[in-house]
Design brief:
Length: 412
């Protein structure tokens, strides 16, 4: 069996390990535009910050490809897939045959049209290792950095460079930071903490015009800068899949086994969609743990095993300047909110189920809340009042405790 994976991040690793759990001998080829051993993308801000280095950023040991019998074609681009002939054509002219193909192509930065952007000489994205290296090569203690985008990518960039530059200003069209992750109260708490470190914000605003090293905002404010980082968002990389007839919405559509509508073709990670069980909708859930689990499911299925990935939920675990945040699920429902100093807890329930939560500051035992959402545990089957105050296993029935401690599997 010839397996080919286009992409080389968490979904690809999951796929490789999934395949090898079933098929020890089939050939696996990984094709990646980036020339690097698989690394953890969320760590690029820590590379700038000085908390890690390229060796420690690796998502698997140096021997990973060799240990798993993988041929890694790094620094080459898959230009086309010939589905009829079952081969991938590379930019160097090579043709890689496959029996089973996984698209793990991830996402690309989204750069909206902005007047005068072409005039800006030093502009960067912040998604890949090369982006971090390029930015690191340009920053100095006198640099004024303007970041467009107050989402996860923009704020992690701000954290990574703040101590190495003169000033960092973040502009976003939304009225609050992390609008896709936090509610208004949570955003205010995190924004205040980040501002206390020295980051400046211009929210509910956007760039009307760039003039070389100055940005004129829509309210007339003029911001001078030396370096520009555009971190507005990302879009799933679906072009190769769409070109051969895979069904694509925002991301590539798959079933619970990660199979597309085309035989022998699969998709996993940020390029694909999953069923978000908290809102019962197909969505792109661009999160590393989801990507790995999707890839593992695809790999096991590709190799002839049985695996489903049908408990996908949006989830984030992130920190900014020492303040920890964990969120999961959706926030549509009845809210229970507790604010205590720098700590914030919001739990949202609906139809006798926990649908989502936000924890800021004290994030201990967040996994119990996540489990309640994933497993769709009826709240009247546990001591929900105790769980809201103090997440602990004693709030579950004896049978449920045994399952969560790894002792028993409840049959449907």
């Amino acid at each position: 069996m010839k397996y080919v994976i286009i992409g080389n991040s968490a979904a690809a690793v999951g796929c490789i390990e999934g395949i090898r759990s079933v098929d020890k001998t089939g050939t696996i080829t990984v094709i990646s535009k980036e020339p690097y051993h698989v690394y953890s993308r969320p760590l690029i801000s820590y590379l700038l910050y000085g908390k890690t280095d390229e060796q420690r950023m690796k998502y698997r040991p140096d021997s990973f490809y060799e240990d798993n019998g993988v041929k890694a074609l790094l620094g080459v681009t898959a230009e086309k897939v010939d589905y009829e002939q079952k081969k991938v054509i590379l930019n160097n002219g090579a043709q890689i045959p496959f029996d089973k193909l996984l698209f793990a192509t991830g996402s690309e930065p989204f750069v909206p049209p902005m007047a005068g952007l072409d005039e800006v000489e030093k502009k960067f994205s912040f998604m890949k290792l090369d982006d971090a290296k390029a930015l690191q090569a340009e920053i100095n203690p006198e640099s004024r950095v303007l970041i467009i985008g107050a989402g996860l990518i923009g704020l992690k960039c701000a954290e990574g460079i703040l101590q190495k530059v003169k000033e960092v200003t973040v502009v976003d069209l939304a009225p609050c930071i992390l609008p896709s992750v936090l509610d208004e109260e949570g955003s205010e708490i995190v924004q205040k903490h980040i501002e206390e470190q020295g980051v400046k914000f211009c929210l509910a605003n956007s760039v009307a015009q760039f003039h070389q090293n100055a940005a004129i905002l829509k309210d007339g404010t003029e911001l001078a800068f030396d370096l520009l980082v555009v971190a507005v968002g990302v879009r799933p990389e679906t072009k190769l899949a769409a070109a051969i007839g895979c069904k694509v919405n925002k991301g590539i559509l798959t079933d619970a086994h990660r199979a597309t509508n085309l035989a022998d073709v699969y998709a996993a990670g940020d390029c694909s969609e999953s069923l978000d069980i908290t809102v019962n909708q197909q969505r792109v859930l661009a999160l590393l743990p989801n990507a790995y689990m999707q890839g593992e499911t695809a790999g096991i299925t590709m190799a002839g095993g049985e695996k489903r990935y049908d408990k996908a939920i949006p989830m984030n675990a992130v920190g900014f300047f020492g303040l920890h945040i964990v969120t999961a699920g959706s926030y549509d429902g009845e809210a229970y909110v507790v604010k205590n100093g720098g700590n914030y807890k919001k739990m949202v329930s609906k139809d006798n189920l926990l649908k989502g939560y936000i924890l800021i500051g004290d994030v201990a035992r967040a996994g119990i809340y996540t489990s309640l959402i994933r497993e769709k545990t009826p709240l009247d089957s546990i001591d929900y009042e105790l769980i809201k105050e103090k997440p602990q296993l004693m709030a579950f029935t004896a049978t449920e405790r045994a399952v969560k401690l790894g002792g028993t599997k409840i049959e449907d």
